[in-house]
Amino acid sequence: MSSMRCNPQYIVYDMRQIKDFKQVSISGYKKLDVCKAFQTSLINSKVEDALRWGVEMHCTGMNAKIWECIYNVYLQYIHINNPNFFRYYLKRRRDYFRLIQSYPDSHELFSRNDQSIRNLYAELISICALSKKSPLFNNKSIPKLTQKLLYDRGELKKRMMGIPLHQIYSYVDTNDPNEIKLGLNEIYSNIYESKGNFPLFAFWITWLEQISAFKKREQNNAEISLFETHQEFKCIPTVIDGVDEEYQTHWVWKIWKFLIDYKRRREISKEAEAFIDNAFQDFIDEFKPAQYNRKKYLLYLSFYALKGMIHWDYTIYPRLPFIYQAIGNINMMYGYVNQELTKSLNNVDLCRLEKMYVKLYQHMCAPEKKSVIQQFVPQKIMEPQKVDPQDIKIKSREEMIKERRVKTFVKNDAPMKEDVVNQIDFSVGGGKEDPNMLKSISFINMKKSVPTYQPNQRQQEKNMDLRVENEVVSKVLKREELEKLREERKNAKMKAFMDLIPMKREEHSEEKKKSGEKSVFEYLEPETVTINISKKYSHAMNED
User: Fold this and answer.
1) Domain tally for the chain?
2) Are residues 222 and 256 in the same domain?
3) Does residue 158 share a domain with residue 178?
4) Residue 398 lies in a domain
5) Could you read off the pLDDT of 78-94 as tens digits, one per residue?
6) Is residue 207 located within the same domain as residue 247?
7) DSSP letter for each residue of 142-189
């Protein structure tokens, strides 16, 4: 896990667990409504609303839904407008899985207080919301076929290229259904022929989807009937590494073979080749037939990449200053959630809640993973760390002035590194103004750019805090030593005085015997005399 800590001021303290969020979110909203609002905000490019609902889902433990919504919005609405984002999305998803491994299984809810995961979500949500969107894969380009048009020869002939079936003999088997052979032949022709276009490619994929669904319904009705029997509408299995054997009979693997073989035989750009490889690996990742409708857009984008209809010069980060500011101010959103949860608590109850939250996490964590708690435990609850004063370096005033210079943002046209999160300081935001975005990002102060501090200044502030803490600790230790010395001195005087009492008693009794008078010690018990005298002298010593 990253060594970065979450600011204690923005930690979300909530004792509920995942099982308590079956239908409602952490703030009491319906989970279905939250998902719809989040996805709608991404589509409509409302950055503030998207971040707000994303934080709500993260605090509720809906991590899988966040990734799914970003994935769906990209494939259906962003696609060719930001083609490089797909590769970056897969990279950041791998980073997320590496970070989430530090948490116990089924307790991902505690990741809401991980600063690295917060920044990762803020970055992806901002990029997705600010990217240009267009309804490329709508009903105009992907028609919906009715049952009457499935076997209408006139309509099918209009969209057939009339190429014989011998070109796909190496991909299909003689026992495969004839409908699948027809559809695959037309798809193959659209890929390899120069006359091929996307509307025809999408039409025949949709035709195969509809014909498969129609045959499946007939098969289900035949199972109910006692007399009619129908042959299974499946292909011969295509061996694909990473796909279960029961799912290898799907006809979609034939299309992927068309695309991959075309990539090997023809010369295409490196960006297109890398995109197709990433799309194929993502398609086979935990594939199930139920996921086909969500992942079929990867086929469409791969066709665009093969035909050279994608411009790869688009930057991954549209309006980079606003992405910086969104990441720098994401903790405010989590702070608002925590304020709503704890607004009815006083300071005593709030401190008690913090300690109970820490104990709950320690109870759920495995022994070897208890160190993870230091990522989001407040400083006042954690045990103070011992720091060697020699390690603390105090810098001169000139060095401090140099480190406080404001960084200027790089223009979007300049080459940027892929990982935005590693380039900025997450505690503050910054950037240039854009009047068009003032309405959509109201929670960020856009009228005045906020300077970003140098990393050395951060380290210096930490050193100064440690120095003050050490001075306070040393004063406390000196005070304790003085009190200890006073106590020892007092005990020594008391012991010396108690040793003198028996001697004084004997001398006084001898003098009284000679004079014939009784001694005071004969009327009083020895213990009483000792107690009274000790009280008297102890009071006198305290006055000293």
Assistant:
1) 3
2) yes
3) yes
4) no
5) 999 999 999 999 999 99
6) yes
7) SPPPPTTTTT-HHHHHHT-----GGGGTTTS-TTS-HHHHHHHHHHHH
- Say if residue 538 is in the same domain as residue 445: no
Contacts with 503 (C-beta within 8 Å, 6 or more apart), sequence order: none
Length of the chain: 544
Gap between the Cα atoms of 254 and 170, Å rounded: 10
145, pLDDT greater than 50: yes
Angle (deg, nearest 10), helices 31-43 and 47-60: 150
Instruction: Kindly give, in sequence order, each residue whose CB lies less than 8 Å from that of residue 405, ignoring residues fewer than 6 positions away.
Output: 454
Q: How far apart are CA 142 and CA 221, in angstroms?
A: 29
Q: What does each C-alpha distance from 147 to 150, 151, 214 come to in angstroms? A: 5, 8, 8
Is residue 67 located within the same domain as residue 128?
A: yes
Q: What span, in angstroms and rounded, lies between the C-alpha atoms of 78 and 85?
A: 9
In the chain, the largest separation of any two C-alpha atoms, in whole Å, equals: 148
Taking only the tens place, the pLDDT of each residue in 166-222 is 888 888 888 888 889 999 999 999 999 888 889 899 999 999 988 888 888 877 765
The answer to whether 137 touches 203, Cβ cutoff 8 Å, is no
Residues 107 and 44 both lie in one domain: yes
Indicate the pTM of the whole model.
0.66
User: Residue 533 is which amino acid?
Assistant: I
Tell me: do 41 and 162 sit in the same domain. Answer: no
Tokens for 58?
């993260």
What does the alpha-carbon distance between residue 54 and residue 31 come to, in Å, rounded to a whole number?
Answer: 12
Owning domain of residue 195? 153-306
Q: Which of 193, 158, 160, 188 lies closest to 172 in space, CA to CA?
A: 188
d(Cα 65, Cα 122) in Å, to the nearest integer?
A: 15
CA 165, 170, 174, 177 dihedral sign is negative
Same domain, yes or no: 181 and 301? yes
In a domain, 376, yes or no: no
